[in-house]
Amino acid sequence: MNSIIEAAAAKRAAPVVATSPMTLHTLQAHENARWDAFVRACPDATFFHLSGWQKVIEGSFGIKTWFYYVQQDGQILGVLPLAEIRSRLFGHSLGAMPFCVYGGPAATNDAARAMLDQAAHELAQKLGVGHLEYRGMQRFHPDDASWHTKELYVTFRKEITGDDEANLNAIPRKQRAMVRKGIKLGLRGEVDNNVDRMFEAYARSVHRLGTPVFPKKYFAMLQEVFGDECEVRTIVTDDNRLVAAVLSFYWRDEVVPYYGGGMDLAREVAGNDFMYWNLMQAASARGCRLFDFGRSKLGTGAYDFKKNWGFTAQHLPYEYKLYGATALPDNNPLNPKYQLFIKMWKKLPLPVANFMGPYIVRNLG
Questions:
Q1: What b/e sequence results for 105-121 when a residue is b if at least 16 CB atoms lie within 10 Å of its CB, and e otherwise?
Q2: Whole-angstrom distance, CA of residue 236 vs CA of residue 269
Q3: Rounded distance between C-alpha atoms, residue 170 and residue 165, angstroms
Q4: Is the domain defined by 154-315 classed in CATH 3.40.630.30?
Q5: Distance between CA 42 and CA 25 in Å, rounded?
Q6: pLDDT digit string, tens, across residues 105-163
Q7: How many CA within 13 A on the CB side of residue 362?
Q8: What is residue 16's three-state secondary structure?
């Protein structure tokens, strides 16, 4: 009897041997649930690997995408979403992914990852792009000299607890005082089922910065496609005046405030400070234990603002492989050649900027 039991246990413990080769595929609409099930289970994957980004990017900007996956014996082993940007102003590129802070291959083994890499390489050659870009929190090819990186972006990520008082006390004193100012003035947060107020605050904010605005349709599609994982939180005064708003993503035990902005009133009442605190409170109550403040460019006001919250900057080593291009891309508002454009954009009437912005921003990625 013991020998039978031992044989059965050995059989259960034996590794599963693949019976078919790995194969490469592109995602079809009926496979979205299967793709997302893999993404949610894969440690390397992020919110920005979800299949919904294909609908959002193609539907909002008319940009062509390729969502590659590798499977074996009917099981997905790796995914790589890619999109093509073709612009006279900013060049021709293939990236994982435009409009996303994180991207690149997410796989459960090296062989699947290599197959996805090869697919991206062949597609880049076929399209004749200037460069291929991966956006990871770590380098995918640290020992491959054909892949380049540069210091431009950092991300800010910090653990939070389920205790509001502990989270508030973890904020440095000067920044905590700004949060308390908003609390004393009676600001409050409301969750919206549309993007109307959020877009108004966001559009006014980016116009002050001299930055083209994303189309309102894009934000509406994010809310529609990602449902409960996409929250629009609006901050108002005690007499219901719009102060600020932020669109955030919820992923696993993380919250990612992604797009936001404030009205002119926000500076007077510490509206942006209160907004992120109000989001932190809501995320904590929802069970989140990591606050991802998102990426910022070195040397910008957004970078300084996030550091003031006590978050430590973590370099994002985005990787670039050059094809037709001879230099790394520099689509950066800190680039001196864009300063005149930024000054001119700030002077445009807001309705004009809101009309023209989407035609420009779709080429930035």
A1: bbbbeeebbebbbebbe
A2: 10
A3: 9
A4: yes
A5: 18
A6: 999 999 999 999 999 999 999 999 999 999 998 899 999 999 999 888 899 999 999 99
A7: 18
A8: coil
Kindly report, as residue ranges, where domains of CATH 3.40.630.30 are found in the chain: 2-150, 154-315
Amino acid residing at 246: V
β-pairing, 153-159 with 290-297? antiparallel
What is the C-alpha to C-alpha distance for residues 111 and 120, in angstroms, rounded to an integer?
14
Helices (H) and strands (E) in the chain, counts: 13, 15
Residues 203 and 263: their CA atoms lie apart, in Å, by 9
Put the strands of the sheet holding 242-251 in their side by side order: 188-192, 230-236, 242-251, 254-262, 290-297, 153-159, 313-315
**pLDDT digit string (tens) for 269-305?**
999 999 999 999 999 999 999 999 988 888 787 888 8
The Cα 219–Cα 18 span in angstroms is 43
Q: Report the Cα–Cα distance between both ends of the chain, in Å, rounded.
A: 65
Q: Considering the domain 2-150 in this protein, what is its CATH number?
A: 3.40.630.30
- The structure tokens listed for 139 are 């380098």
Q: β-pairing, 290-297 with 254-262?
A: parallel
Q: 176 with 168: CB under 8 angstroms? A: yes
